[in-house]
């Protein structure tokens, strides 16, 4: 862990812009206390501020003019967020007031904090590891309860503890190997490769595999998935969008070609954010604007995680439906048979048999029938069957962690192969070291500066 160098005192508005009851300015660094003493006049005059005690008083500028009535707290290092001296000014949540208080502080010798700088200092000082620092940003950005839960767990060290456990196992193997390297002729077998192999599989490899499975599901919980509504003109895509949103969002009309541009909206289905995209009905158009809409629809289809292929059931299965279906069926998809209110059971059964490979859901977008079943099928397709259940995961490695975890797993698998092959101990040791280096990168022990910069650049100011 890098030794924390002497740093500037930094300040920023910690709360979001806009009108709010309270707004907080946070200061961190060695000058925090002296800034407090110059800018804040406690109601009861005193020469010192007791750490972690809240004081009532007035914030003043250099001219002694009152800027706000406020509460202030001085928190003495190292028992603080950054492990440096920290001061917080709890002002009224007026952005004008907060700006002028910040301005006063900046004039008196601190500088504006960069995005994520408070948390970066907490990390550099060793209060939190890199996965906990990343959890802070995940928590601020969480859009659903599930995503927030994963972030809080990670903030509390659930991911760190698991990774640290794996690391300690590997360090144990390495220690055994080193003894074996130092005493090659010893009669006693120090390094029992069968036993090590067993522990490696049970305690390290299986744990890495579980984390990788959780990371896949975690991405869905955090970021959600893109669901594109596609079909021929007039199939009822926009009606379906409206039914899913429970709001008349898109224009619906009996003429084909009603939707031209794509329309994007978000819903949450059982805790999973779903980004819905309604598209222009796909067919050959003479009109250049309609043709542009179709081009856009095709682009959205390319990037969809899941396609809802909407068919006008009352029109029966046409050759154009079949051609279009051919172009989407390689993607994960559900077939939505719309306008079932106009269909006989016989017609429905005929349509079902046109899609022997797909899951078909009959609905009536106009009357809201079958929407619950569709949502259930959507949820099952996203999470069901494969992978762990979202509510059973205690933590979920992010994309950065996942890439490094894959390398960790590969190194462990090479380690296992080397054991089985009876490779020389020093070669085996190389693989363990390589797995250890990967884990060190994830928790921030050995993470390259460029990676740290990328992690902290995702933060907002004041965090
Ligand atoms: N007013 C305020 N509310 C806030 C924060 C803050 O900085 N200020 N936080 C900011 O994100 C979050 C709380 N997170 C925090 C995490 C650690 C410490 C801290 O001082 N840790 C010390 C021990 C403190 C003690 O034991 O009393 C440490 O770990 O050494 C403070 C806040 C959410 N709410
Ligand atoms: N009877 C019945 N009519 C429906 C149903 N769903 C949609 N419609 C009607 O079908 C027509 C077309 O609906 P839209 O939702 O605009 O169809 P679209 O697929 O978005 O059409 P484009 O935007 O042109 O591609 C409208 O007149 C709707 O009222 C349904 O479930 N039952
Ligand atoms: Mg439409």
From TrEMBL:
Domain TrmE-type G: residue ranges: 224-383
InterPro entries in alphabetical order: G_TrmE, GTP-bd, GTP-bd_TrmE_N, GTPase_MnmE, MnmE_dom2, MnmE_helical, P-loop_NTPase, Small_GTP-bd
Class of the enzyme per the UniProt entry, highest EC level: hydrolase
Record note on cofactor: Binds 1 potassium ion per subunit.
Coiled coil region boundaries: none
Chief place where the protein resides: cytoplasm
Residues that coordinate or bind GTP: 234-239, 253-259, 278-281
GO cellular component: cytosol
Compartments in which it is found: Cytoplasm
Subunit composition and interactions: Homodimer. Heterotetramer of two MnmE and two MnmG subunits.
Protein's recorded name: tRNA modification GTPase MnmE
Species of the source: Desulfobulbus oligotrophicus
Protein encoded by which gene: mnmE
């Amino acid at each position: 862990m890098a030794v924390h160098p002497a740093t500037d005192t930094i300040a920023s508005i910690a709360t979001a812009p806009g009108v709010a009851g309270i707004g907080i300015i946070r200061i961190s660094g060695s000058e925090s206390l002296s800034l407090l003493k110059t800018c804040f006049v406690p109601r009861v005059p005193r020469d010192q501020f007791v750490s972690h005690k809240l004081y009532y008083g007035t914030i003043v500028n250099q001219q002694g003019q009152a800027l706000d009535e406020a509460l202030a707290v001085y928190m003495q290092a190292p028992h603080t967020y950054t492990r440096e001296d920290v001061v917080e000014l709890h002002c009224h949540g007026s952005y004008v007031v907060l700006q002028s208080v910040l301005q006063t502080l900046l004039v008196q010798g601190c500088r504006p904090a960069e995005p994520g700088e408070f948390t970066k200092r907490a990390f550099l000082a060793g209060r939190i590891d890199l996965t906990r620092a990343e959890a802070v940003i995940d928590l601020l950005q969480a859009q659903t309860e599930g995503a927030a839960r994963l972030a809080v767990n990670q903030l509390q060290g659930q991911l760190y503890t698991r990774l640290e456990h794996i690391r300690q196992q590997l360090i144990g193997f390495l220690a055994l190997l080193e003894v074996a390297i130092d005493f090659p002729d010893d009669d006693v077998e120090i390094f029992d490769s069968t036993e090590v192999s067993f522990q490696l599989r049970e305690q390290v490899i299986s744990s890495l595999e579980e984390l990788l499975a959780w990371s896949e599901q975690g991405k869905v919980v955090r970021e959600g998935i893109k669901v594109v509504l596609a079909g021929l003109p007039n199939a009822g895509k926009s009606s379906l969008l409206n039914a899913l949103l429970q709001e008349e969002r898109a224009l619906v009309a009996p003429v084909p070609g009603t939707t031209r541009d794509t329309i994007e909206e978000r819903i949450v289905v059982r805790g999973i954010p779903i980004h819905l995209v309604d598209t222009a009905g796909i067919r050959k158009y003479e009109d250049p604007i309609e043709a542009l809409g179709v081009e856009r629809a095709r682009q959205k289809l390319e990037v969809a995680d899941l396609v809802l292929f909407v068919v006008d059931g009352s029109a029966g299965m046409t050759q154009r439906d079949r051609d279009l279906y051919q172009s989407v069926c390689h993607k994960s998809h559900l077939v939505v048979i719309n306008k079932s209110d106009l269909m006989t059971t016989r017609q429905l059964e005929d349509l079902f048999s046109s899609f022997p490979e797909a899951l078909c859901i009959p609905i009536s977008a106009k009357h809201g029938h079958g929407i619950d079943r569709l949502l259930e099928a959507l949820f099952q397709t996203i999470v069901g069957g494969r992978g762990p259940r979202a509510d059973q995961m205690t933590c979920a490695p992010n994309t950065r962690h996942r890439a490094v975890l894959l390398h960790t797993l590969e190194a462990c698998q090479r380690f296992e192969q080397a054991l089985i092959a009876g490779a020389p101990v020093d070669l085996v040791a190389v693989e363990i070291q390589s797995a250890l280096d990967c884990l060190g990168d994830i928790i921030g022990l050995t993470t390259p500066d460029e990676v740290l910069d990328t992690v902290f650049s995702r933060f907002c100011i004041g965090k």
